[in-house]
Design brief:
95 residues; mainly alpha; Histone, subunit A; two-stranded antiparallel ribbon; 3 helices
């Protein structure tokens, strides 16, 4: 085993987990299996393989930014229940 029970206990304490003895034994074996798999991956020849963030090519699905005319202050305030000069008037909420 490359990872010890003491190391798993230490990580558990850092994560503020209360692990039982059975959980510690189980996690030690599981973490060791993960590390074994990582070692297997290290042996693969990845020369010439381009690193990718996605398995399939992705394109931006957003529309292009275009400048469009906005509302005039009069248009923006036309449906306001209460307006004062060129601003929305709201009820006072802080006493």
């Amino acid at each position: 085993m490359r990872i010890t029970r003491a190391e798993v206990e230490h990580v558990g304490r850092l994560a503020r987990l209360a692990l039982s003895d059975e959980e510690l034994d189980s996690l030690t074996g599981e973490m060791d299996a993960i590390l074994d798999y990582v070692e297997q991956l290290k042996t693969l020849d990845t020369e010439g393989i381009v690193p990718t963030a996605h398995a399939v090519p992705m394109e931006n699905a957003f529309r292009a930014d275009e400048v469009k005319p906005g509302f005039t202050p009069e248009q923006a305030l036309s449906n306001a229940p209460d307006a004062a000069e060129s601003a929305f008037r709201v009820r006072r909420v802080i006493e």
